[in-house]
Amino acid sequence: MTIDVEQPVRRRRPADQVRQLALECARRLLLQHGPSAITLQAVAGQLGMTHGNVTHHFGSANGLQGALAEAMIRDLVDAVQAALAGLRAGETDVRDVIDLVFDAFDAGGAGQLIAWLASSGHRDRLVPLCLTVAELATTLEHPAVDQQAEARRVGRIISAVIVPALGAALLGRELAGALRLGDDAFRVLATDQISTIGEEQPPTL
Asked: Helices marked H in 120-184 — which ranges?
């Protein structure tokens, strides 16, 4: 007598769920093994999916890496906006915001990933990341008599945080050691620069 065993039906995951799971997996690979470990095959293997399925959502390993970088920066922007709300309410200070950004680029792996994309000739993957930062700048601008001056001021503030944070993530420990600076020297520098630029706020409307 033959017994027919009913095979379980494999349910197809929604596209947005697959994409989110893949990005979470890619982030774990980044933190554990570095940017070179973020491959379509590695992500597919960890998720129990086919290589083709992951390829369908990201196109290539560089596409996956670029999508991860954008997601990480968007998460950082959300966290910064929350921290700024706390700053306005007197619950945090400027240094708290600085630490948030520096930690995201260093321990959070964003600095490694951005440098990897840039050095491997895929700078186009960084454009969405920069646009996300530009969106943050727009939300921080105050109505002013000279709106262009205000936009430049906010742009300088953001640059005074992101550029040192990226540099510190890649070379900070070694450079600070060679120059006999403290471990938080670049964070202090960014804090001082922001304070100086902040005092240049143009007259508001």
From this structure: 127-140, 147-167, 173-178
